Each structure stands twice: as C-alpha cells, then as structure tokens.
C-alpha cells in the first residue's frame, strides 16, 4: 500500500498540500492592522455586553474598541480631564473685593469724647486683575490640552498592543492547525510502517522512530493549546473580561501594502508624540505670558463714603494704590521658560530623527518580509512538496530509508513554519509603522 502524506485518515479524501491550506484565518490586514483611536468614553458599551460568551466571535476592530472603552489607564486619563476643568475654573477666580469700615475721632477726651465728633468711613476696594485672570486661565487651558494628547498616545499604544497580541494568537492558531495535521500524518506513518513491519519490509527500529515522532508531534500540539489559552486570557484581560477561550476572525494571508517613505514622513510630523512637544512649547509660552502679566503692578482702587457725626454730613472718598518696585521680578522665570522652549524644540528634532530612522528600517523589513513570503510560497514549499511525494514513493518500494523520508517531512514542516514566521513579521512590522505614524483605522476588515 502506498502512503499518501496528504490523505485525510478520517474521510479518506486526498487534500491539497497544506502549504496553501493552513493559513485559513487571521486578521484583515489588506491595509494593515487598524489602530483605532476613538475618543475614550466611560459609558457602558453594547460591545462590552456582547462578549459574555467564551465562544463569541471577535474581530480586531471589536477587540480594539473594547480595550479603549474599558482599559483603566485610559479611564484615568478621561477622569483627569475633570481635574483640569476644575483647575481652569479656579484660575478664573480672582482676588475678592474688600469692604472696609474705619472709625476716627471717637471715644476720646474733650471734644472727641463719646461719638459726638466721630467720623466713619465705609470703603469698597478691588484689584484691576483681569489681565492676570486671563493669563492664568490660558495657562491652565494649555496644560489641560496635554491630557488630550496623552489620551491619543495611550490609545495608539494600547491599540498596537491589542493588534500585536491578536496577530500572535492567530499565528498560534495556524501553527496548531499545522501541527494537528502533522500529528495526523505521523499517525498514518506509524500505521503504514506497522503494515510494512508485519510484511517484513521494515524493521522495528523504524517503527520505534515513527512512534517517537508521533509523540513529539502530540507534545507540540499540547504546547500550542496551552499557549493559546494563556494568550486568549492575556488579550481579553485588556478589556477587563479575561477568558480562557476566544474566537478570533480575519485573514492573515492578506498582505499589507508597503507605503512610500515620503507619505509616512509626512504623517510623522502630525503624530501625537510630536504634538506633545508642540503643546509643551505652547504651555511654556502661556506661562511666559502669565509671568510677564504678573510682573506688572496690580492697581487697587478704593471708593467709599465718609460720615461726619458732628455735622451729620457725608462725603465721598476715593483712592488708588500702585505697587512700587522692580517690574522685572519675574525675569528669571521668563528666561527659564524661554530656555525650556529651546530644549523642547531640540528634543522634538531629535525625536523626529529617531522616528525617521525607525520608520525607514521598518519599511525595509516589510519589503524583506514580502520577499521571504513570496520566495517560500513560490520556490521552497512546492519543491519540498514534490520531494516529499517522490520520497514517499521511494520509501514505499524500499529505495529510501525512514530517516531520509522523515527528514524531508521535517523540512516541509519547517518551511511552513517559516512562512508563518514571515507573515507574523510582516503584520507586526506594519502595526509598528501604524503606531509610529499615528494612523487610525478602526475598521479595515
């Protein structure tokens, strides 16, 4: 009996070689893994309620949305907005006006005894501080805007984490399928050699080697099953609903296109990390303006009414107070803030150079991954499949040893795993490019 390594033992049907069958599911990455950054919300979402069953089918978009709606780090940033709103309200409150009452020439002696010569003055005083209030409010608003930028950065980072874990789980699922097929094939090899031993065409040594190979393949399947459970739990814990089993859907074989360097460099200038530096410089500018305003003297106006007890007359009183002293008392603070702006500008330039290099390297790695995938699919796997078919025929008629036949099967399995590695590298590289460039694609399926 001739052994066919691609024959399904359960239904007896010949199947297409597994190099073109095992990549059946994955994530939709025609344009890459989408890094969604919707505005975080504390409201309960219907999508959170949908993942109650351990068999709920989940795509990448849903996984990202669930994470961004419920991850505690984003919730903390959302809550921090209320803190800054309170700071802005407080900054808009100025010094309270003062009401004063002064009594003169009373409770003395002679003509000033008792209250007969008393003079009483009721005054109302206030500071001219609107410029200071506006400056404090503007400074508080500038600092509050930093929270929004932090939310965008955290959302991008979390989206990238979800997407990477999503890809890794799908890769493991494909490895599991591949190893389960290898187990089936190893069992068929054991059965085939058992018949050959019975017919006197093979030795017991070959039988023992085939049995050991079957045990190794079973162990590989068991290892992947444990890894998948752990990975599922780790992924679902990102949205606070850890589960041992999840159903993920997509297509790993859809290869993301390699974007041009020029288009990605343009996007780099608009990413939240660069916006963060721009915002910090804006905050420093607001603080400088506030320091200049606070260095100016605050005039205080006073107006009131004076009563003369002896004559029962009234008179108006008014006054102005102008602080006296050096108007450059905040010169050091202003100089420090100006220097901080220069530091931030230099740091922004350094970050751009670093991201530029990282982006170029990732684009080159994507191109290499494309080449590796095409080479393995077109040149390596078909050759090994043909070799395995020929080796199976040669082994069946006794022209090839079991070790030689087994080595060819291992080579094919290794090439198929290498193809999975290349797909994984390609998608992870594209995810990282999206994270670096701040791309927001919430639904690319």
Summarize the structure.
The protein has 445 residues and is α+β, with helices and mostly antiparallel strands.
**Beta-strand percent range:** 5-15%
Mean pLDDT over the full residue set? 78
| CATH fold topology | Outer membrane efflux proteins (OEP)
Number of domains: 1
Largest sheet: 4 strands, antiparallel
- The proportion of residues forming helix, as a percent range, comes to 55-70%
User: Strands of the biggest beta sheet: in what spatial order?
Assistant: 2-3-5-6
Q: Outline, from the CA principal axes?
A: rod-shaped
Structural class of the helices, strands and pairings? alpha+beta
The rounded Rg comes to 38 Å
By CATH reckoning, the class would read Mainly Alpha
Distance between the termini: 47 Å
Number of strands: 6
Helix count?
9
* Uncertain segments: 1-54, 441-445
CATH superfamily membership = Outer membrane efflux proteins (OEP)
């Amino acid at each position: 009996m001739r052994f066919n390594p691609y024959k399904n033992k359960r239904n007896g049907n010949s199947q297409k070689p597994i190099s073109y069958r095992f990549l059946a599911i994955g994530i939709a990455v025609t344009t890459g893994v989408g890094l969604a950054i919707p505005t975080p919300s504390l409201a309960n979402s219907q999508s959170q309620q949908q993942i109650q069953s351990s068999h709920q089918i989940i795509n990448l978009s849903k996984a990202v949305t669930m994470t961004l709606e419920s991850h505690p780090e984003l919730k903390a940033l959302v809550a921090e907005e209320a803190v800054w709103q309170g700071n802005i309200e407080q900054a808009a409150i100025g010094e309270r006006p003062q009401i004063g009452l002064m009594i003169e020439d009373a409770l003395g002696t002679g003509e000033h005894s008792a209250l007969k010569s008393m003079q009483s003055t009721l005054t109302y005083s206030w500071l001219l501080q609107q410029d200071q209030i506006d400056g404090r409010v503007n400074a508080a608003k500038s600092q509050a805007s930093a929270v929004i930028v932090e939310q965008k950065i955290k959302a991008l980072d979390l989206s990238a984490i979800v997407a990477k874990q999503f890809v890794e789980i799908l890769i493991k699922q494909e490895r599991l399928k591949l190893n389960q097929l290898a187990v089936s094939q190893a069992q068929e090899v054991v059965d085939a050699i058992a018949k050959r031993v019975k017919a006197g065409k093979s030795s017991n040594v070959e039988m023992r080697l085939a049995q050991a190979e079957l045990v190794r393949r079973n162990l590989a399947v068991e290892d992947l099953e444990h890894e998948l459970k752990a990975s599922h739990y780790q992924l679902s814990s990102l949205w606070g609903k850890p589960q041992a089993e999840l159903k993920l859907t997509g297509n790993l074989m859809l290869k993301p296109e390699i974007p041009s360097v020029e288009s990605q460099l343009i996007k780099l200038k608009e990413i939240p990390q660069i916006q963060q530096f721009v915002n910090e410089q804006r905050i420093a500018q607001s603080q400088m303006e506030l320091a200049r305003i606070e260095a100016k003297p605050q005039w205080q106006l006073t107006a009131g009414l004076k009563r003369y007890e002896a004559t029962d007359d009234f008179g108006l009183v008014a006054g102005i107070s102008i602080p006296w002293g050096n108007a450059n008392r905040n010169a050091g603070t202003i100089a420090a803030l100006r220097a901080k702006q220069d530091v931030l500008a230099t740091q922004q330039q350094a970050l751009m150079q670093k991201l530029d290099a990282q982006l170029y390297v990732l684009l080159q790695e994507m191109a290499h991954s494309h080449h590796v995938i095409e080479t393995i699919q077109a040149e390596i796997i078909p050759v090994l499949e043909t070799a395995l078919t020929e080796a199976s025929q040669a082994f069946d008629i006794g022209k090839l040893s079991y070790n030689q036949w087994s080595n060819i099967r291992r080579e094919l399995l290794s090439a198929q795993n290498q193809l999975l590695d290349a797909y994984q590298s390609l998608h992870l590289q594209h995810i990282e490019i999206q994270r670096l460039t701040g791309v927001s694609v919430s639904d690319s399926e």
